[in-house]
Amino acid sequence: MATFAKPENALKRAEELITVGQKQEALQALHDLITSRRYRAWQKTLERIMFKYVELCVDMRRGRFAKDGLIQYRIVCQQVNINSLEEVIKHFMHLATERAELARNQAQALEEALDVEDLEADKRPEDLMLSYVSGEKGKDRSDRELVTPWFKFLWETYRTVLEILRNNSRLEALYAMTAHRAFQFCKQYKRTTEFRRLCEIIRNHLANLNKYRDQRDRPDLSAPESLQLYLDTRFEQLKVATELGLWQEAFRSIEDIYGLMCMVKKTPKASLMVVYYGKLTEIFWMSSNHLYHAYAWLKLFSLQKSFNKNLSQKDLQLIASSVVLAALSVPPYDQSYGASHLELENEKERSLRVANLIGFEVEPKAENRVALSRSSLLSELVSKGVMSCVTQEVKDLYHVLENEFLPLDLALKVQPVLSKISKLGGKLSSVSSVPEVQLSQYVPALEKLATLRLLQQVSQVYQTIQIDNISKMIPFFDFTVIEKISVDAVRRNFLAIKVDHMKGAVFFGKQSIEAEGLRDHLSLLAESLSKARTMIYPPAKKAAKLGEALSNLAEIVEKEHKRLLARKSIIEKRKEEQERLLLEMERVEETKRRELQKMTEEAEQKRIAAEYEQRRNQRILKEIEDRELEEAQALLHEAEKRSKRKKKPVLEGVIMELALNEQLRERQEMEKKLLKFAKTMDHLERAKREEAAPLIESAFKQRLAEEAALHEREQQQEIELSRQRHAGDLEEKRRLGRMLENKRILQEKVVSSREAEFTRMKRERQERISQIIQSRKQEREARRKMIFFLRSEEERQKRLQEEEEARKREEAERRKKEEAERQAKLDEIAEKQRRRMLELEEKEKREREEILRRSTAVLSKPAEPPTLGRPAELGGAAPIPAAAATAPTPGPGKYVPRHLRAKMDGAGQAPPPETDKWGGGSKPDDRPSWRDERKPSPFGSGSRTSWPASRR
């Protein structure tokens, strides 16, 4: 990496390398200079270096180098001179566009040169194989190799510039201009893939702008200028999308514009909204969504009528006619009929979303499932006076299709009107967003509507009609097309039609009994049948004697009383439960309300704190700016005093720029002074050293001679001192030699005494260690015996516990087995008793039927004299008195009240008692149950339930 003392040197070096043809080395040298941390202060030389740098990048098609250099230059220029960055970027785009245009002009086959699906994709393997196999050579291949790389580089240039300028509030106009030029590039060369990517890039930039709101140089969308630039960019995106035929991307652009409007809570100008709704009409028409298309036309008509002062009567008439025809083109049935719950919810959300885009406020409630509908649209056309502005042909068509009932002539009357309408239309002179209106585009939908209306009206008059007659009545379509239209209408529950091709007829009818036309008929039929039945069978007169007519009145009254009491208690319980639920709901609502209030208060406190913090930050920033402004003014004032120039009036907006320029100039002057002073000091220091050199040399030699004499003198003194110390040491040795014998005797005495003491201490230590070992052995032996005893005891206890548990388990199993055997015996006895009772009930049933059959046979022969004296056992019937004949006879098994039993006993002889299996004489109704056989009645001998005679 080369380093330069000054930026001018790097520029000069790059020009020299370019002259000798080494452009790559020149580019690398400039790149190292730009990305170096050494040159972070802006100066004019850096701007010239950047111009040369981008020229090299464009010449060599090095987009990555250009992006890195522009990012570094943006850091340098952001706070000092942002206009320099703007000029460099404009020069960069101009060079890239110029080279791409030059390459395009050189190529003669533009369609083949641009026949690439994706400018960012590399060559596909199949393309390479095809080129080798087919042997493509000559001009076609040269055009592809010449033009396509330059267009790739131009596209990369646009992306790079947009990425650099995406969050720079000072270069919003340049960002918008770059986006417009990129849109025009995609439009001019039909680049649909690049256009989609460009839209996504701009959309992500806006999303990141809203996500990271604490950036320093972030654009402020609440400012009118910024909002207008962003809206102009989105409207240009919408126009290019519609011209390229990318309708899905156009709808996303519409959503982007709506999101911007919601973000800043401000409606754009009427001229932009006219473009907005004009493009919406095209989008909805291409998506075959006639309802939303009609609503968009209605909003466009309202805007043109309210804000366009230059709107002529002819243009207004054409727009109003388009609105009405678009509304009539909407199918008259519900498109969502028969859909699933999920599809209905999705359609509801989609309708609400589109309603917001069109500009209609709709409450998202469950009952408003259809936010926008055909009926509401037609009512709005009448209420807003649209029908008064349309042509006469459109009025006639609307009247025929919506108001008249012509089951046979409807299509024949509509056909000439549609022929006239198809010729209407033309260019609009005063509506820029909708340059041309052709009413003929609505004719197929209106023919379909006329067919549906005719079939609907014919179904109300006829039940069957020939296919040939329908084909004659509908001249628009063949019968196959009519059949398809009918199938769609039947599927949407608009018509009920059956087509029989074998008979050549069409049958009309209703699909269900809940149809609209059958409700009144069924109710009238029911009323008529009720009246006829009353006339044929008049109600019978009431019985004279209430007691005779209602023999079981007391029982009924008692049951009804109990039922009413039970119903009253149920109602009371329901009321209490409802009150409890209401209290619970009120408590839950109160809790929710308090939580919501608490959340609201917390949110309000957070908002107030955020506003306070924002105001404090703004105040601090304002103070900093004011302080900087004051310092800049003071600096300018000092500069004017030094230069003794006349003070000129300066705007406040350029004070900072002038102050920065003044600081830069002073810094440069100070650097020049320092360089001059450094040069002067360098010369002075060199002269001083030249004069001092011989003096230093002579002083050094003199110092060497003095140090040599001093060294010789010190050596002699050291030798003399060493001789004197040696003589003294010899004398000391002779004096101490006389004490050696005494020293040896004392040493032997001390050593012997210490050896005896060591032996004694060693013996004592051995004895102490042996005692400790013996005691620890005894302790370990006692511990082992204790552990063995405890383990043996635990094992014994565990064995006893296991034996006890085994015994308990065996006892439980034995009891369970005995209980199961006893239960099996009880079940067997119960089953036998149940079979016995079933046999008894079957036998009693047969006997009751026999008695009833005999009594019926006797009553059916009144003229035959009764047989007297016949025993009851032989089946003869006793004579029946007249009073007994008139009295109601209770049926078998029917309960008789106590106050009527005496009357029945006195009126006639009761049936003979039957002998049951147990030998008792009780009636069949009084037979004992199997429960009565097992235990006596708890109420004593006076109870109805008694034991059988065989057991008593």
Task: Write a structural description.
It is flat and about 175 Å long. 71% of the residues lie in helices and 2% in strands. The model is unreliable at 109-114, 132-139, 362-370, 511-518, 862-893 and 906-952 (pLDDT under 50). The longest helix is centred in the C-terminal third of the chain and has 120 residues, at 740-859. The termini are far apart. The chain is mainly alpha-helical. The strands form two sheets. A three-stranded antiparallel sheet has the order 3-5-4. It has a two-stranded antiparallel sheet with strand order 1-2. The protein contains 30 helices and five strands.
Q: What descriptors fit this protein?
A:
about 950 residues, mainly alpha, three-stranded antiparallel beta sheet, two-stranded antiparallel ribbon, 30 helices, flat, disordered C terminus
Largest sheet: 3 strands, antiparallel
Helical residue percent band: over 70%
| Span of the ends, CA to CA | 129 Å
- Enumerate the strands of the largest sheet in spatial order, edge to edge or round the barrel: 3-5-4
Gyration radius (Cα, Å) is 58 Å
* Mean pLDDT rating: 77
Quick structural summary:
The chain is an all-alpha fold. Helices cover 71% and strands 2% of the residues. It has helices at 7-19, 23-35, 44-60, 63-77, 82-106, 110-113, 125-134, 139-164, 172-188, 192-211, 224-244, 247-264, 270-286, 290-307, 313-328, 341-358, 374-383, 392-402, 410-422, 443-461, 467-473, 479-491, 519-536, 546-549, 553-643, 655-736, 740-859, 882-886, 898-907, 930-934; strands at 425-427, 436-438, 464-466, 497-500, 505-508.
